[in-house]
From TrEMBL:
InterPro entries: Bacilysin_H2HPP_isomerase (IPR052535), Cupin_2 (IPR013096), RmlC-like_jellyroll (IPR014710), RmlC_Cupin_sf (IPR011051). This is Cupin type-2 domain-containing protein. Residues 37-100 form the Cupin type-2 domain. It comes from the Bacteria.
Length: 122
């Protein structure tokens, strides 16, 4: 099945210059994230029960997983194990587009969802 991202509602992130669109199936979900502006993201470190894969399709981002910082550029892939503390910290000069795959699916991100957020903060 082909996903047309334009058919999915844009989800604005509070306090952060990110546009997100969300699709999910029975076993995993995918979040397309577009960061048009370069700079610090100021996202607090968090963790969740979902394992996560991040694929950068354009630009670059910096993120931290369990205390180690990584630079991800277009074509790079990162794996974040379930219950691992992580955050995205910085978007490169050209912005970034990335796909975040989560299993089990992040149903808390679905438009109209009443599922509590899966994100946990220390």
């Amino acid at each position: 099945m082909k996903i047309n991202w334009d058919d999915h509602e844009e989800l604005k992130a509070e306090g952060i210059a990110l546009a997100r669109r969300f699709a999910f199936g029975q076993e995993m979900s995918c979040l397309k994230v577009v960061a048009d502006q370069s700079g610090d993201l100021n996202l607090p470190p968090h963790w969740h029960e979902n394992e996560q894969w991040v694929v950068v399709t354009e630009g670059s981002i910096r993120f931290v997983c369990e205390g180690t910082e990584y630079e991800l550029n277009s074509g790079d892939v990162a794996y974040i194990p379930a219950r691992s503390r992580h955050t995205a910290t910085f978007v490169g000069e050209e912005g970034a587009v990335l796909l975040e795959f989560s299993a089990p699916p992040r149903l808390d991100l679905a438009p109209g969802s009443i599922v509590p957020s899966s994100m946990k903060f220390d």
